[in-house]
Amino acid sequence: MSKLPNFHSLACPAPLPPGERVLLGHGSGGRLTAQLIQQLFLPAFANDILCALEDQATLDLHHLGVAGRAGAEPRLAFTTDSFVVRPLFFPGGDIGRLAVHGTVNDLAVGGATPLFLSAAFILEEGLPLADLRRIVASMREACADAGVQLVTGDTKVVDRGKCDGAFITTSGIGVVPPGRNLALHNVRPGDCILVSGTIGDHGIAIMSQREGLEFETALQSDTAPLHDLSHTMLESCPSIRWMRDPTRGGLSGTLNELAAAAHAGVVIDEAAIPIRPEVQAACEMLGLDPLYVANEGKLVAVAPTEASEQLLDVMRRHPLGRNAARIGEVRGDHPGLVVIRSAFGGERIAPLLTGEQLPRIC
Amino acid sequence: MSKLPNFHSLACPAPLPPGERVLLGHGSGGRLTAQLIQQLFLPAFANDILCALEDQATLDLHHLGVAGRAGAEPRLAFTTDSFVVRPLFFPGGDIGRLAVHGTVNDLAVGGATPLFLSAAFILEEGLPLADLRRIVASMREACADAGVQLVTGDTKVVDRGKCDGAFITTSGIGVVPPGRNLALHNVRPGDCILVSGTIGDHGIAIMSQREGLEFETALQSDTAPLHDLSHTMLESCPSIRWMRDPTRGGLSGTLNELAAAAHAGVVIDEAAIPIRPEVQAACEMLGLDPLYVANEGKLVAVAPTEASEQLLDVMRRHPLGRNAARIGEVRGDHPGLVVIRSAFGGERIAPLLTGEQLPRIC
């Protein structure tokens, strides 16, 4: 899950005005989220691990008081996400599946093998127990698929009208093998940018469910666990610099995060971005830019250009990477900006989302 | 935080009827919570670690793929809790302070040194940023007091009316030293039961705030981090069998958990239970039984009788244990039952809470 919406570093324009209130846009993964994190959360909790600004905190075992030779021991990855998706059930998944995949993926794109999850449920008085049972069955299946164990949990119930059916927060622990170190500061000008498949499927599946839209082909969320794809990629191409799953804020959110934190320019070839025709059509109908629509089973990887062909080949042979594509590159010029080159040679800047495009998508 | 309300084992009467809905009592830490956990969560997620039924999952390093001699390596403790307290600010604390203390205490009573926290915020559109700032400042201070680092987080915003200001879920990682093993199955008939101080302060502080009650002396929540008290106790008395913090469900909830899981009887001397006169008075006025009122800065410990005097002495010399008392003992007879012996020699059974006494207390 992109840490744009989480505690992440982004270019951050104006300070939070006094007297202001929380807006939906503060949860969008865009500019307002960045502002909230930069101005409010980071100053309060600043520490080296949080400020590494990755999707997971990476903890050396010496942080845990366990002796070991530096660099020769595995490290722990630790991450958390709340899920507030509406509706609770949608084509291709539900809040439970999403809550497991989201945390598994945050660990996976950091190069960790996901191992243990916690789940904290906030339930609304009146939620049918049959719905809860369905959500829990779905989580159990998702845990089995991802090879993780749910080892601790909590349940709170709030009075009717004080939440929206169910909110679920999962946290995860994984292990990062010795020597593996994916980080934004590894990224170099000249590196290529790959995406593992079609973009916008999750957000559009949710939107079409909410709006009662019908398409000729069934549109499904892409929610999926990325642990095996990322493991396969890292085993065959250890030179991968950095990965991220472009969830809230969409592909553009992840690319802006990359550009801002790596102090690099990002140039994307629009025609190379894989996108389903029905997602494209829905976006046109709804007035949405697919670059800003959430994904829940895709990853973005940055790798040295010389590795790109082999990496693409490995990704395409994986069921979750069949539509993988090289979509652009990192540049030394225009640091901090994401530039989209159209098929006709035009160029436009894709900034961070201002406001909120699709609330409650995850 | 008592895992009664969490994924815990309790005597569990009837199966969940079909067509049923989530009730406030499912979050009470009482009978309905136990039912939900036993019938719905445990069957879905059953694994050895979850089924150990402690307040934290304890992970051997070999679970994490780290080599080490069995028994000679520290273990990891992992726990999670959501906080939905209403109002967000109350005498003696706020939701942020509670969210840090709750998770710190779940680790501490398991014998772990708390090290790292995550925090996931679900915010309601319209929450004043000044309130969020106050909550975050309070969390920062509570983290510093407890010696933990907040290393990863998440922020979601839901539309107005779809949550109640703010819900916060914290998860925590701690380290359990080699050889330390607090567990319900360690408890033996003849062991003594101690409590670290006055009971019911948190729940009554919240209730009096909600109801606008005034007392001659200011009633404050007891929310406090128990890491140092528990560490001090364990260092001076390594024979402690088991500890728990009696939060939701109150002292009675924790004692019932002890009786059920240890297959033992619990006999409590009512006159020995420390309780503030103003809490007693408020309970009488509100028709509440203080045994069922939540605490957020107290712990219950079970230890061999021969260690009780020394342990009580150590506890009373600690600022958070000044009012510590020996309140009862574990018995071989009437397994599963908690019996309260009154000052006049009468006996009554204190069962698990049925329904919900004080919703949204943590």
Automatic annotation (TrEMBL), chains A, B:
One Pfam family named in its UniProt record: AIRS
Record-level GO BP terms: protein maturation
Cited InterPro entries: HypE, PurM-like_C_dom, PurM-like_C_sf, PurM-like_N, PurM-like_N_sf
Domain PurM-like N-terminal: 71-176
Superkingdom, taxonomy of origin: Bacteria
Boundaries of every PurM-like C-terminal domain copy: 188-334
Family: Belongs to the HypE family.
NCBIfam families: hypE (TIGR02124)
Protein name: Hydrogenase expression/formation protein HypE
